[in-house]
């Protein structure tokens, strides 16, 4: 039977990990939350070792995402995609920054080719990244897919600032923990 509805969920433990009243001001606080989400996701055995979050420029947390590919049987359910879609639903806008505010996506690891493409259209002004793609491919079996050689420059030219290597060692540690676990998603 054809499905006329698509339903995606985030895990119930999110509410225990995330402080929705906190203002996340610095790059370290923002990527730190993304890494914490990734760590909890593998701790619960609910998905891949990736977390992401969208913040308003005033530090308010707008949305979070973790990798949900396996529990949702959905190849697009990466952490960044979940965070983008959740923010767009919450703000009732297919472009997150449609209201004129500046918004940031923080992610525990460099976006894959799918999430990179989504970042171009999602309506964010900044991209903050923990681990590098080479860390992901060194420490896990995930493939980041084909990206433009100057992927960061392509985003910058579209008005999206990119900052990398934020808490990179902590982000690498989550990937390494997952890699050693023998789990494969
Ligand atoms: Zn992705």
The average pLDDT value, as a whole number, equals 96
The N- to C-terminal Cα distance equals: 27 Å
Largest sheet: 5 strands, mixed
Rg estimate, integer Å: 15 Å
Small-molecule binders: zinc ion
Quaternary form? single chain
In percent terms, what proportion of residues is strand? 15-25%
Give the spatial strand order of the biggest sheet.
Answer: 2-1-3-4-5
Anisotropy-based shape: globular
Number of DSSP helices?
8
DSSP helix fraction: 40-55%
N to C succession of SSEs: HHEEHHEHEHHEH
Tell me what you see in this structure.
With 185 residues, this protein is α/β, with parallel strands linked by helices. 41% of the residues lie in helices and 15% in strands. It has 8 helices and 5 strands, in the order ααββααβαβααβα. It has a 5-stranded mixed beta sheet, with helices on both faces. Strand 1 and strand 2 form a beta hairpin. Helix 2 runs parallel beside helix 8 and helix 4 runs parallel beside helix 5. The longest helix is centred in the N-terminal third of the chain and has 17 residues. The model has no long low-confidence stretch (mean pLDDT 96). The structure holds zinc ion. The site of zinc ion has 6 residues, from helix 5.
Topology record:
Layout: H1 14-17, H2 27-43, E1 51-56, E2 61-66, H3 69-72, H4 79-91, E3 103-109, H5 113-122, E4 126-131, H6 133-139, H7 151-157, E5 161-163, H8 168-181
Parallel strand pairs: 3-4, 4-5
Antiparallel strand pairs: 1-2, 1-3
Helix pairs in contact: 2-8, 4-5
The structure holds zinc ion.
Zinc ion is lined by residues 78, 80, 111-112, 114-115.
